[in-house]
Amino acid sequence: MKYYILIAILFITGFGVEAQNSGCNCCSENHDDFDFWEGKWEVTNPDGTAAGMNTIVKMQDGCVLMENWVGAKGKYTGTSVNFYNNKTKQWEQLWVDNSGSYLKLSGKRTGNQMILRSEPFEGKDGKKYVNKITWSYNSDGTVRQLWEIYNNDTVVNVAFDGLYKKVGN
After folding, report:
1. What letters, b where the CB count within 10 A reaches 16 and e where it falls short, cover 64-100?
2. Please, are residues 51 and 66 in contact by the beta-carbon 8 Å criterion?
3. Element spanning 82, H or E
4. CA 93 to CA 133: how far, in whole Å?
5. What does the pLDDT look like over 35-91, one tens digit per residue?
6. CA-atom Rg of the chain in angstroms
7. What pLDDT score does 76 carry?
8. Closest to 144 measured CA to CA, from 163, 117, 165, 159
């Protein structure tokens, strides 16, 4: 009997209706933290040469940012799935490319930057490294993506440094 009373109270107070009709599982500030990267972009290297084209689309009712990359020569392509994980309270990215490489990252937005890191991995030299990718949203609407590789808090390589400029609207 107590069980039926509890169910009746939950439905009378609207709990059951709210749970079924919330309509937006990814409508929070955290889910919008990476929206500055959404769009169609021309990407250049630090010397101004073409690096490639990138299209980032928000999908799955606002829960996912899907990236599709094509290198300047058209031979190198890759895709990433980016999402805010409510359980870990972090953004996560899974990148896979046509060379068979993949990268898993996680992190959060700080100010105008989204900063994601990999778990430590062992290099060919036996040392431990961490990938760190920082997307900086600039005041002119461009985005800088800087991919650094660290060993013991020291940058040992810059794998990519690209400036994103929006194409069209």
Report:
1. ebbbebbbeeeeeebebebbbeeeeebbebebeeeee
2. no
3. strand 77-85
4. 11
5. 999 999 999 999 999 999 999 999 999 999 999 999 999 999 999 999 999 999 999
6. 20
7. 96
8. 163
Domains, the chain: 25-166 (2.40.128.20)
pTM of the model: 0.85
Give the pair of three-digit tokens for residue 27: 């409508």
Q: Classify burial at 133, counting beta carbons within 10 Å of its beta carbon; exposed 0-12, middle 13-18, buried 19 or more.
A: buried
C-alpha 145/C-alpha 41 separation (Å) is 12
Distance CA 134, CA 116 (A): 6
C-alpha to C-alpha distance for 152 and 90, rounded to whole angstroms: 23
Cα distances from 140 to residues 36, 85, 88, 115, in angstroms, run 12, 29, 32, 20
At 6, which helix (H) or strand (E)?
Answer: helix 2-12
Q: pLDDT of 119-143, one tens digit each?
A: 999 999 999 999 999 999 999 999 9
pLDDT band at 168 (very low <50, low <70, confident <90, very high): confident
| pLDDT of amino acid 9 | 41
Tell me what the pLDDT averaged over the chain comes to: 89
